[in-house]
Amino acid sequence: MIVEIANLQKHYKIKNSIVTRAAKEVLGKKFNGAKLSIAFVDNDEIKKLNKRYFDLDEITDVISFSLNENKRTLNGEIVVSVETAVDTAFKENIDVEAEIILYVVHGLLHLLGYRDGDKEDARIMHDKESSILKTLGYNMPTVEDGFL
């Protein structure tokens, strides 16, 4: 698995080893040949990307781009707004690193085909995120805590 990490923000120090470990946990051995690019940006940059690619003039937490040419490999790009993670962690009184890794996991699950457009899909995705983050040593808020 190849994981390229670009840290293009100054809001929080990114630990590449933790990001790579999270990617390996999500993808497992099935996607050992995966090629991923993960960029950590600020709100201005993610808003520009959201507008350019999705015609949404708003800040979002994470964007995923599938670059797959066939189903046997996984190639993709994930863009994470660290500024949003820092703001959310402060407001919710939760760990910043956990919030950043949540966004990485969320983006990876989108690359694997998980969706969160309706309540049932969002619940399935949240359960998967929660399980992965627990394995990585992070606590996740429950749905009852207002996550969805």
SSE inventory with pairings:
Blueprint: E1 2-7, H1 16-27, E2 35-41, H2 43-54, E3 62-66, E4 75-81, H3 82-92, H4 96-111, H5 119-135
Parallel strand pairs: 1-2, 2-4
Antiparallel strand pairs: 3-4
Helix pairs in contact: 1-4, 3-4, 4-5
Helix content: 40-55%
Mean pLDDT: 91
**Outline:** globular
Describe the sheet with the most strands. 4 strands, mixed
Strand-residue proportion:
15-25%
Q: Would you count the extended β strands for me?
A: 4
Q: Sketch the topology as an H/E string, one letter per element.
A: EHEHEEHHH
Note the total helix count: 5
Integer-rounded radius of gyration: 14 Å
Cα separation of the termini: 31 Å
List keywords for this structure.
148 residues; alpha/beta; four-stranded mixed β-sheet; 5 helices; 4 strands
Summarize the structure.
This protein is of the alpha/beta class and 148 residues long.
Q: Would you kindly provide a written description of the structure presented here, covering whatever features stand out?
A:
With 148 residues, this protein is α/β, with parallel strands linked by helices. The chain has five helices and four strands. It has helices spanning 16-27, 43-54, 82-92, 96-111, 119-135; strands spanning 2-7, 35-41, 62-66, 75-81. Strands 1-2-4-3 form a four-stranded mixed beta sheet. The protein is globular, with a radius of gyration of 14 Å. It starts with a strand and ends in a 13-residue tail after the last helix. The relative contact order is 0.16. Residues 143-148 have low confidence and may be disordered.
